[in-house]
Amino acid sequence: MGNTHPGATSPLGMVSACAYSGAYPTGYGRYAKNTEGVPEEMFERTEASGFTHFQQSGTGAIRKYYNYVRVTPMVQPLDDLGQSWALHDERAEPGYYAANLDTGVRCEITVGEKVAVHRFTFPDHHSARVVIDLSCGGLAIDLGRTVPLRAQVESMGRGRAQGTVVMEGVPLSVYLEADTPGWRQMLWYDRRLIPGGTRLDFDSIRHTTLRPFGLLFMGSARAGQTIEVRMGFSLRGCEQAKENLHRECGTSESAFETVRAGTRERWRDHIDRVQVEGGTPARRTVMATALYHSLIKPCFADDESPFWPSSGPYAFDICTMWDIYKTQIPLLQAIAPDRAMDLLESLIRVCEEEGNFPIGYRMARGADRFFRQASALAHTAIADAHALGRNGVDWGWALVHMVDDLRRMYGEDFFEHGLVHPITHTLDLAYAHHATAKVARALNDRRLADDLERRSHQWVNAFDPSTGLLRDSEFYEGGKWNYSFRLLHDMAARIEMSGGDKGFIDKLDRFFGYGAQPVKQPGTNPQPTEMATGYALNRFEGLNNEPDMEAPWAYHYAGRPDRTAEIVHSALTWQFGTGPGGLPGNDDSGGLSAWYVWASLGLFPVAGQSIFLVNTPAFARAALRVGDEEFIIETSGHRETPIGVDGLDLDPPAQYVQSATLNGKPLHSTHLSATDVHRGGRLHLRLGPEPSTWGNRIRPPSHSFSLAKPPATSKE
């Protein structure tokens, strides 16, 4: 399950809108919460009780995020609000979603960056209505409901209304205009109309006192009559929500097609920044879908921070930083560099105002910042951006926060002992020290850089020299084996710890199941013994979690890029498809989809190291628009490979690089510097069906601890 949804979104926009059933984890669909085996069905059909806003995309074990301000067209009494109706004839495009309800209402939604526009086409009915429920939020699973703390709703007549609900400590305001000529406009509370009422105020709401509330428009509808509801959102009050609405929708009565066309054009511009040639229709569809999913999150709400008053970039829904820092943020740096820098500026501001760089950051106040998953991840993205010479950030100020953040949470133990449990945080913090040292050295603070680099070498404390694997510890959504093959800043020393190239490759081969018998995948409600047997294999499960994204590229550092090619080619061919289940794991806010984009281009960014690893691309030719430049990846000897079952019984794919040139000059190494890619150029790869010696000798760079010993001659 990719855990994505088909709702209307804008590229990296603040607002999304989709049909709402309460299912896990986006609010759309039929499935219950599940982390092992095939997910259980929560509903027998695809259904909806209305249409909500601010859905998650691709997240995993997340309980109750968003799905605020439910809009429901009805031809039933208000007492039926909350009932779900079957969805038919669903249609989804970038920036647009439509479906028919069983009630006979055709529902269409489009969104802009901070607005949503609903259009409903009613059947002939004497008492039709559009109901806006401001009390709704969260998911229909155990402990999944979101309850507002405070709220106010005001009906201003003539199709205008506004309201604010404080959800999880954040004030979400909406200003709406409805094109409902001749219809009545009323507030309601606890499914009862309030004739003549103009305002509802709730100073304190609890789970035990919450009753549904909102407003509605009602009247007779002739067959085919359309009703349009335009909604502007803000985290800084109703007046700013109104300004957002008028800026994107104008002041005319109908804005649906205008907003839809504008968002479609924004999507076209973003998607066109990666062009591919060749490939089967199915592979091209998956590629385009992956690029689309890569550009939904994070949400950017410029000038909307509810936590500090000044203007500037504000980003939320950074719910899987431990995934996106490896793949998606480097993709944004390449094809949307302005937004990538806005993200870093927002993270630095969060650190300044709230005390630490978040590991995850959603539209909520409080300590729920996902600190258990990882430590100090923003440092890698900041170091990469600095190495690229990006502007727009006060780098000295950024370095201050990077250094301070290294000693927060688990960082304090790392500073004192050089070892942290869970053990993966030791790797995070050592890597972040290295990334911060790079920035410090570039800013000529050599004393600080030397100290940071010395501490970065403490990654060795995380490993058991007798096994070449991580020490026993707790592991978040993984195990010792898949976390043991993360890419570190001194991979040469890491490989030596495993007995050299052969020992390291033997362990990787075991992890990826070379020579092993196939295993049975767990079904619905797998028994604990069945799952324990699977975990005991210590096997690569597929690209369904954060550490698995980079593990295939560890072979590059041991001189076996052919192994990388085999695993990545297999993943692109067998683990992704066009139908339900077409993603091998949670999309993780675009982290997994960004992996697919990079892998299809034959590149993999090593976050924090400012390099790209080179591999066989999935397309004959591709062009990456990097800022104002273009980086071309072209091949000779490429063979088209269908995906899934269509790929059976074909000739061996040309999945191995035989030789390479960069801008016409021979390239003998399996890596490029990030500046090579970002300045534009042409990478040519000659491919073949058999492994070659290309890339066996010159390894990607490893950064030894030069203060304690001179660097080995084999390292850069």
From TrEMBL:
InterPro entries recorded: 6-hairpin_glycosidase_sf (IPR008928), GH-type_carb-bd (IPR014718), GH92_N (IPR041371), Glyco_hydro_92 (IPR012939), PNGase (IPR050883)
Protein name in UniProt: Alpha-1,2-mannosidase, putative
Phylogenetic classification of the source organism: Bacteria, Bacillati, Actinomycetota, Actinomycetes, Micromonosporales
Region (Disordered): 688-716
A single BP term in Gene Ontology: glycoprotein catabolic process
Glycosyl hydrolase family domain segment(s): 240-688
GO cellular component: cytosol
Any GO molecular function: peptide-N4-(N-acetyl-beta-glucosaminyl)asparagine amidase activity
Domain Glycosyl hydrolase family 92 N-terminal: residue ranges: 2-234
Matches recorded under Pfam families: Glyco_hydro_92, Glyco_hydro_92N
Protein source organism: Actinoplanes regularis
